[in-house]
Each structure stands twice: as C-alpha cells, then as structure tokens.
Amino acid sequence: MKNLSAAIFLGLISLAAFGQHDKRNNTLLWKISGNGLSQPSYLYGTIHLICAEDAMLSDSLTRVIRECDEVYFEVDLDNFFEMIGAIGKMKMRGDTTLRDLLSEEDYARVKEYFERRQPLLPFSLLETFKPMLAASTLQESGLACENTAMMEQLILEEANRHGKKIRGLESMAYQAGVLDSIPYRVQAEQLLRYIRSNSSGDSRDEELDQMMKAYPEQDLARLEELLNHPDAGIAEFAEPLLYNRNENWVRKLKQLLPKKSLLIAVGAGHLPGERGVISLLRKEGFTVTPVPNKLNKTRVI
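The structure assignment produced for this chain is given below.
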C-alpha cells in the first residue's frame, strides 16, 4: 500500500510482533476474565471497511452482544453531536491545504487522480483534510467489490436491537487529532507515493486485497505481516497511533471491567503485540483467552 493511510482500515494502527502463529487458533474474539472479575468481558478486533460479502457476525459474537451490559467502540458511534463536532478536527490546522504541501505539478496530479476515482466527498473538501484521512477514501474505492460495509456498523446495529448502551474509549475529536502528530508534509508525500504507484487509475492495490482476505480469515499474524512491511511507513509513528492509545484504553478498562460485562470492539491491529491490548491486559493481571469465532458464510449481512 506504500502509505500511512493503510492503517486506517484497522483503526489507525500498525501491528507489533504477535509471536508463534497457529492458524487453527485464528480468531478476532477474546474473553477477559480473572483478576477479581465477577463476570467476563470480551474484546473483538474490527476493520473499518470490508466487502459486504465478508461482513457478518458470528454466533459467538452475537451471543456476546446479547448478553453483555454495554458495548465500547474506539469512539461513541451513537453520539451524533460528537460526530458532527469531529468534522472540523479532520481538517488540517491553519487553513492548510494539499496545495500548500505539494509542488504545483504534484498537486495537479493528486487532484486529477482524486477526481478520476470519484470518492464520496469532493476534492475541494478532501484537500483540506489531513492527507492520511483523504487517502483512506481512495482505498475505500479501491476495494475489489461493489458493495462495502463497516464491521462497527454491524455490531452497532446488533447492539441497538438488544438495547445496549453504546460508549467510546476516546472522543472522535481526540482520534482525529492524533494525526496532527504526523507532519502534514509527510502525510502528503505518502499520499503522492500511493498515487504514483497506482497511476494507471485501475491497478489493484495488492496489499490491500491481501488485507481484505486476511481479515475474514481472522489471521492476525498475516495482518501483522502486511502492516509491518517496510513500505507501510508507520513504524516511526507507532507511539501516537498505536501504543499511547492502547495504554490509555487499558487504564480506562481497569476501572470499567470490574463494574459491568463489556464488549470492547476496536481495530484488529490494536489486539496483538507486546504493547497490544491483549498483552497489556494480561500484564494488569487479567486472563485473556481466544474464543472460537466461526463465521457462517450463509449468514452474510
């Protein structure tokens, strides 16, 4: 994918070492118990965009949603006013636009590419967005399928059906603001590099295709391999994008887990690694174990 925006599909993340891998144990669903908890909670790895044919909830996950007390996402997806307020945070500070960050020739190339790919938002708006966010709209249109879905949306709809309270581990404004820690010019250069590598306009993003294959297979090790590829360009920004957020979440979860049974649904890349949520919870004394999460292909949503 050769650019930072690849991370947004798994929640603004990069993956750290996951250790030995046994495909028989592939799962996105993990049980949190022990450490004095009177009832278990669950951790689930999401992806922000996926082909609709692969978007489904397993029987195990549906049961967890039905039986838990509350559902936590990275942000509160049920808070309309917070979503509206976060739009301003998507834009670069100081009225900066892509024109300010690129040469005239490169700017023209980026503009032409966006307009040819026809993302959902007009280029006049996207050129004010932090380039990593703008780039993600290109990759959305680059999926090898006509119809797409958000795993978070499927979980949200199921939770609403059962009357579950929806909450967020961090605010949308904070999440959008995290990208301010990555120099805009670096983001713009990554965006330009992506466009150059796909300059024909119809070439496939092979790494993205592989990610879209690895996720429904629940293959965290493969996702790790893809996002740790040198071309991903994320390693130097792992602290703000990944590790700091993981640590913030676990500090919050230490206070929340003893009170209620929760489903915590966050980007799949936040789960593994020495500084991933699974490892951090274990270091705090919790027992975190994999839960079979077999997907029934006849139950496509």
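Interim note for the steering committee: The chain has 13 helices and eight strands. Residues 4-299 form one domain.
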